[in-house]
Amino acid sequence: MQNKFGSGIYLRKYDFFKPGARKGFEEVIAFQNLSKEEQEYLSWKKVEALLEHAYKNVPWYSRNFKKIGLSPKDISQPQYFNQVPVITREDLKGNFNEFISDTHRGRKIKIITTGGSTGVPLKIGVNPKAVREMQKWQMFSWWGLSPEVDMASIYREIPIGILTKLVLKFINWPRKVTSLNATNLSENSIKAFLKEFEKNKPEVLHGYLGALDSLADYILDRQISLPSPKVIWSTAAPLAKVQQRKIQKAFGAPVCDQYGCSEMYFIAASCPENNGLHQFSDAIKLEVLDGKGSQVSIGDRGKITLTNLNEFAFPLIRYENGDQGRWLKSSCNCGINLPLMDQVKGRKSDNFNLPDGSVISGEYLTTLFDDYPDAVKRFQVVQNKDLSIDLNVSTNGQQDKVLRQVKQGLEEKVKYQVAVVLVVTDEFQSFGGKLRYVIKN
User: Fold this and answer.
1) What domains, with CATH codes, occur in the chain?
2) Which of 28, 51, 54, 93 could be stapled to 58 by a disulfide with Cβ–Cβ 3.0 to 4.6 Å?
């Protein structure tokens, strides 16, 4: 439940160290209630300001805009935004300093690394003074929760200095935060975490989907009873029905599916109505493009490109993050007017290639067990270098009939061109605590 008095104290403390936090939170709540036309107008004004700044102050954009004869005045309307070149991970690799704004050069830039699971290491910069919590608080509000809510988190450990630890301790007090390192789950660490969980009774459980999934197995296998949180916040991987049903059963709470990436963490999230993901369009401009770089029709799937409207120290404009997504034609009954997008099912790199040149989409592969959510605990589909496919599955008891049906369906889908090997196992590949359903070796 929202506690206005507690929220006020928490936000004042946060605002002292990150000026603008409280005002920013009020603004994002107001923005989500505006009309579509008002939201698009305000978001475009942010785009214009960012383009002007990047052209004048960021070497990479200045050089590449001039190379193609483009200036911000040429992009006076949203329909001209597609003239701005799309940037990729390859553009960022080796050009880190080129993306730092001259207005922030010489100041401290926070380094964020990403790419461990894709095999392409990458680092980007962010302004350490920027407030990136506003969308989290906004998401909490949809679930009837306040910013200072007690939390439990299953995430990777992020190294921080002693001073930062002290500041966070001051801001959070008396808020209780229970943590478990997702990259090193063990019997002892899980037991200690569950003991604290039972003691603190957090209203939010947050974590990598893979870690939440493993913890749910641990709880269900041992028939452990815990106080139910108000919501489980899942991130870092597409939320399949198999995992959603299992996690909800283990913790007795609904799951909030939050989409983000290391480069831009809060992109979209679901509300209790669960009709799709509300996209934080006041902070991130999201486009869905076809192979030629044009906008796809609403309802069609394409490449996601992102523009961080609030990052001026290290601007990312029209950044292609490798994910596939689509806008939804439907609306949500919750009253939030933010654009609605479908769950991000997978990356373009998750597609499997077949000998005849055809492709099996990663989106399809993540839905293999959607019709049998109670039959399996976990699954992972792996394509090997010889194009053969391993279907790794952990089942709930004997599920021979279901496994035969799913295997046969996959064999028909690949037209029997490659071997499909069914492996019943409890061992799955993970990447820094993150579960991936689809792996292409």
Assistant:
1) 349-440 (3.30.300.30)
2) 54
